[in-house]
Lipopolysaccharide biosynthesis protein (Flavobacterium hungaricum), 346 residues
Amino acid sequence: MDNKNFKNKKILFFSVKLFNYENIIADKLRSLGAVVDYYDERPSNSIFSKGIIRLKRDLYNVKISNYYNSILQRIKNEKYDYFFLIKGEVVPQYFIDKLKVLNPEIVLLYYTFDSFENNPNGINIIQNFNRKYTFDSKDAESYNLSFRPLFFSDDYYKLKNEEDQKYDLLFIGTAHSDRYVISEQTAKWCDENKLKSFAFYYSPSRLVFLFFKLFDSSFKKFKYNKISFTSLKHQEIIELYKQSKVVLDINHPNQRGLTMRVFEALGSGKKLITTNFDIKRYPFYNENNIYIIDRGNIVLEYNFFNLPFEDIDQKLYDRMSISGWLNELFFDDKSFDWLKINKDYV
């Protein structure tokens, strides 16, 4: 894949923290020849800060303004080719206005891996951007954005042909909605069918977990001793993928876009079980590699675990990688058809 377009491009990159993916993206851009200045989009990543930004942002505006003014002071003499923003949960309009004054030729590029239902500030600022993308097909239609699903990083590419399988089924995910119930049901089925499963549930804090335990009915069955309040390191996740045959993906019930887990699994040559029916519309859908379950009525197929992974077409596989993702966001004006009309899709 041709990445020469990134050579010496200067990129101002803002993103919320997302399990180290902000650093993976920045480092990949640098490896492709770009000069990258990265800033966390949030002034703070404390539980309190995240909560107040989402629920009552007005109470946090002074801290947000101070944070973005300090960034403006640091970058006032820099000249950027691109402003690359992921999510846009916090960044204020005045910052974008000032950035454009400082860099009249700058290209503004927006991407979101969250639905606008969860991120109203994104709706308020997207009109500023020259290129704008979302991972959610419904939001793409509703807000006139280009549709571009997520990606897998290079670490998963290297796993493709590795054989070191300890688990038949792997689940890794943040604790939310009905994930625990679904994952435990699949684990029970595996146990009954002499298959070995492993599940890792993460919560950002004990306080958050206990809050949901009290007020969210789906958390009532979550066992405290099965929750980790420390997230897995990137390399630990890689090791678990190496040791697993099939990956379980449980999307949020209100989210249509495919999670990063989908691309990590397929990128590493692992088979996938998912609750996301929308996956049937994607060009890499292959019922040999991908098994869809109904979250309200889970039925699994033993033979699915025995069939070998079928390779994805190389050109499509490259598009699914982080390099393919970055190339499409920054340079590819040709609209690739990521979704297809499938007569069997409901």
About this structure: The chain has two domains: 4-151+322-330, 155-319. The chain is about 35% helix and 15% strand. Residues 4-151+322-330 form a domain with the Rossmann fold fold (CATH 3.40.50.2300).
